[in-house]
Amino acid sequence: MSTSLSLLERLRADPKDTAWQNLVEIYTPLIQNWLRRHQVREADSDDISQEVLAVVIRRLPEFEHNRREGAFRNWLRTITVNCLRDFWRSRKHRPTATGDSDFQELLAQLEDPASGLTKIWNQDHDRHVTRKLLELLRPQFEPVTWQAFQRFALDGLSAAEVARELKVTTNVVFIAKSRVLARLRQEAQGLLE
Question: Which residue from 177, 190, 180, 165 is spatially nearest to 135, judged by alpha carbons?
Fold first, then answer.
């Protein structure tokens, strides 16, 4: 198994490590999808998402996780909003389907931690990051361990059904789930909490 450090800890220790590539792989599609939802053209969403990630890596040493749930997620949302605002100002672009007041309202909602749009951001973030982290972690486990975890924890089969299907004991199924979830919690430390 790989290092016991979380992705954020590895990024802080060595931003040139594979952790940087993992961060890019995890967050680029999330940021791009969010930008496109808000009338940003595909080519522009590529540029803005690169700028967001550049700011993240540049400012990560300053980031302090305040032990509040979603601290990194909120920090990332703030950076995304600021990069989007800078993009619209510098290029004099506005979302094509909205007027100036709608543009300001969109930014205000994204900045407000209690808005419905922020709640959607939080849900999308957590689902997406969990899915991407699981994809990255999968190669670290034996195929039977991963299959047992997937069928039991993700597909919702009972431990007995999975044990019969994979020709293992139910204890093996419970252990597989426990190992994968422990590794997921470890890798996600600071990203989802």
Answer: 180
Cβ within 8 Å of residue 31, ≥6 positions away: 45, 48, 49, 52, 53, 80
- For residue range 9-26, list pLDDT tens digits in order: 888 777 666 888 888 999
Q: How far apart are CA 139 and CA 152, in angstroms?
A: 18
Tell which residue, 28, 32, 76, 70, has the closest CA to residue 55.
76
Give CA–CA dist 191/74, Å, rounded.
Answer: 10
Inter-residue contact 103 to 88 (CB < 8 Å): yes
Measured CA to CA, the distance from residue 111 to residue 105 in angstroms comes to 10
User: Whole-prediction pTM value?
Assistant: 0.79
Predicted confidence (pLDDT) per residue in 83-103, tens digit: 988 888 776 555 554 455 566
The sign one gets for the Cα dihedral 118, 122, 127, 129 is positive
23 half-sphere exposure, CB direction, 13 A CA radius: 28
A 10 A CB-CB count for 159 gives 19
